[in-house]
Amino acid sequence: MTDVGAPDLEPVRLQLDAHDISNRARSAYGPDGRLTLPHTAHWPIFPFEVDGVRMRLVGDPVLPEPPRHGEDPQECSTCHSGDDRFVWSDRRWRVSMSDEPMSLPTLMLHTREHIDFDALTDEAAAEMGVRLIWMQRALASIEGVGRVHVAKWGDGGAHLHIFVIARPRGMLQLKGMFLTTWLHALPPLRPELWTAIRAHVRTALEAAAGVGGEPM
Fold first, then answer.
1. Architecture of domain 80-208
2. DSSP letter string over 82-108?
3. Comparing C-alpha atoms, which of 20, 32, 161, 171 is closest to residue 97?
4. Which of 12, 84, 103, 131 is deepest in the core (most CB within 10 A)?
5. Number of neighbours of residue 205 by Cβ within 10 angstroms
6. For the whole model, what pTM was predicted?
7. Three-state SS across 22-69?
8. Are β-strands 145-151 and 161-168 bridged in parallel, bridged antiparallel, or unpaired?
9. Phi/psi of residue 68, each to 5°?
10. How far is CA 125 from CA 15, 118, 122, in A?
11. Rounded Cα–Cα distance for residues 100 and 80 (Å)
12. Residue 92 neighbours by CB distance under 10 Å
């Protein structure tokens, strides 16, 4: 039964409008001319003391967005790096780990081909999942690792790269979404420990791939 008197509803356009979102945010400013701090600022894992912290002003959208590093494959540093710069590689994937010590064991998975996340075939996507599990197991098998986190952004570089980061057991402030903030704030690990971790990761990935040992 049709309600003859009901007005026709205009269909909603399926679109994220950056200008509309920015304007809505500004209309929600509080008395101090800023958005209220998000509830995550009061989580125990928030890395900063809340007193004195305030939200930045919402900026104007930048459209079109500026190009990322490596949009042109000829300028992509990942493509121009030889396999000797990676801790492990196969015909389609490579795993990098910084030569210089970082504060937490951190790996990155890259495609050998210059493509981004959305260009993966179903076969390559399945391979990606398997290799991420290998990387997770390699880091998790290090004594003192409590959890291993996987993160993908892609706003800085056009060549696919996925982070796999180990959290030390017992450091509960490093749990969850703020792990990468702590990653850049904590001092680097001792060089000899970093070297040992690199060697362990290489051996574990070779074993997982069936090179030089049984799969993990």
1. 2-Layer Sandwich (3.30)
2. -GGGSSEE-SSEEEE--SS--SS-EEE
3. 161
4. 131
5. 23
6. 0.88
7. HHHHHHCCCCCCCCCCCHHHHCCCCCCCCCCCCCCCCCCCCCCCCCCE
8. antiparallel
9. -85, 165
10. 27, 10, 5
11. 20
12. 13
Domain boundaries, the chain: 16-66, 80-208
Two tokens, residue 52: 């004195």
Q: Which two tokens stand for residue 60?
A: 């104007």
* Tens-place pLDDT, residues 36-95: 999 999 999 999 999 999 999 999 999 999 999 999 999 999 999 999 999 999 999 999
Residue 125: CB partners within 8 Å, gap ≥ 6?
Answer: none
Range 184-188 contact pairs with CB under 8 angstroms and sequence separation of 24 or more: 184/103, 185/47, 185/103, 186/103, 186/104, 187/103, 188/100, 188/101, 188/102, 188/103
127 closest CA partner among 107, 139, 111: 111
Instruction: Please give the helix or strand (H or E) that residue 135 lies within, else none.
Output: helix 122-140
Neighbours of 53 (CB within 10 A): 10
Burial (Cβ within 10 Å: 0-12, 13-18, ≥19) of residue 148 = buried
SS3 state of residue 169? coil
Whole-Å CA distances, 116 to 25, 64, 90 = 31, 19, 18
Phi, psi of 56 (to 5 degrees): -70, 155
Amino acid of residue 16:
L
